[in-house]
Amino acid sequence: MLTSKLVAVDFVPIFQQEYRALRPRAPMPPIAVCFRRFTSLNTTIRLREGQIYVSLSDLLEGAPESVVRAIAHILLAKLYKKAIDPTQNLRYKRFASSAAVTRQTELVRYARGSKRFTGPEGRFYHLDEVFDSLNGRFFGGLLGRPELTWSEHMAKRSLGHYDAAHNTIVVSRVFDRPSSPRYAIEYLLYHEMLHLKHPVRMRGLRRCVHSREFKAEEALFPQLAQALSFIKRL
Fold this sequence. Notes:
The chain is an alpha/beta fold. The chain has helices at 11-22, 65-79, 86-96, 99-112, 127-138, 182-197, 212-218, 224-233; strands at 4-6, 31-36, 43-48, 51-57, 147-150, 160-163, 168-171, 201-203, 206-208.
């Protein structure tokens, strides 16, 4: 459950100043700003009954004023469909992608994020067995096994993902049925195992999720075309 606390009064004037810069002739609405214990660097802004409500991740409590000002500008510009100043956008991206902030965000996600495990044993497929088979065939048995679990529900939007904060690979339970060919499950798990071998890296201000090396190894999966065709049909 999210909890919040009011921000020191210094933050409200920053939002007021950025509002005035974006809308010089519009009446100034009441602005309420609070910090929330989000599990990531989230920020939200809403306009309700003439009042602006801003929620900031408490990870931003110690952010420099210039960064808070950039966030205020970006949120207000999005709210009122104004052009975002590239300088302000770059300032925030540099802050968010810095090593210190990235590390802190991961630690908070691990500490606060809830993860429910149903376990690797399904009705028709056991993820531990599939992982060990792939590990031997493609990785020389050198990959440490993370937590493996089937999803709680028959998810079709997120068929699989690797959660680095919890060192967990989740596979959608939609694959745990007799009509699912083994190569489709193997490919899905193989893809997530590649995320273990090739972690997300920063290239400048951009996150590189699927590097050139990642894609090259993914192409080595012998039944890649068949697996992608099956997944597409889902």
